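DM from R.C. (forwarded with permission)

"hey, sorry to bug you on a friday — could you get me a structure for this? deadline for the figure draft is monday and I only need the backbone to look sensible"
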Amino acid sequence: MGPIDKIFLYMNLKHFQAFVAVARHLHFTKAAEELRIAQPALSLLIKQLEDGLGLTLINRNTRQVDLTEMGEEFLPLARNVVNDFDNAIAQMKDIASLNRGKVSVAAYPSVSSNSFPELIVTFKQRYPNITVQIYEGIYDSIIDQVRSGQADFGVVSYSGEIPGFRFEKLYDDEVLLLVPKSHSLASAESLSWIDIIDQEIIMLSADTGVRRSIDKEMLKYDLTLKTVLEPALIHTVAALVAAGAGLGVTLSSYQKSLQSMDVVAIPIVNPLVTRPVGIITHKDRQPTPAAKTFLNLLVKKLSAAPAIHQQQL
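My reply, with the result:
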């Protein structure tokens, strides 16, 4: 077994700290006082270090202590070990106290555009050194980002148990009909799906959670809608509706962001189509302090969302 092997076998941080302290004071008693250990224990640590290296690092006699040539060579290496450890501890304390860190969230555009702006501003005011990363996407991409660890957690609609994940429901998002303000249906307080069965409908693409929820209900009631366009984003649906390309579907959580557009959102009943929205996390991962703090603020905000979602355009 060579010297390097012995270092890994016999040494730990205490040996490096002991040597650095002795080198700093060139006095065993003062070094022991700094480390808050007995002098015999300090002497044993130095001996173990020297035995492990197979080198004499310190010259000792009754009158003085100084470093050998090998001790001088080893000192900057030992300091690096101790400093790296101290820096690591300091960084972990900063992370624990939210003085540094990062939180990454994957969410539907409906959540990121309506709920996140105010929340992020509040969070950054409280924790200015925390980086916040937001990923927008559809259901499948959000699941992939949480699974890979790219996102600490996601905000999605519930579509059944997913192995390895936890889901915490926060609110129900309601599917609404989006019509131009000039349309004959714009004054209706509510509509049934039968009422719009002959209308040209701008749906969302088939890979979105909203579309899957709608298709499931239509199949249950044996209804077939006249779908003419299938964009991936609700804001695109709204723009097409405002331009007169047809009627469209939206969600209650989008009402605030669509207020400036020339459209009206009308509740659709019989059947009422909703999607439960909540937080999805990976069962095998614990959130960082920054992620946990952001998550708590998000849960508090979104738990109050249903009252907001009932506002009319």
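R.C.: lifesaver. Residues 69-96 form the longest helix (28 residues).
me: no worries. Residues 1-9, 306-313 have pLDDT under 50 and may be disordered.
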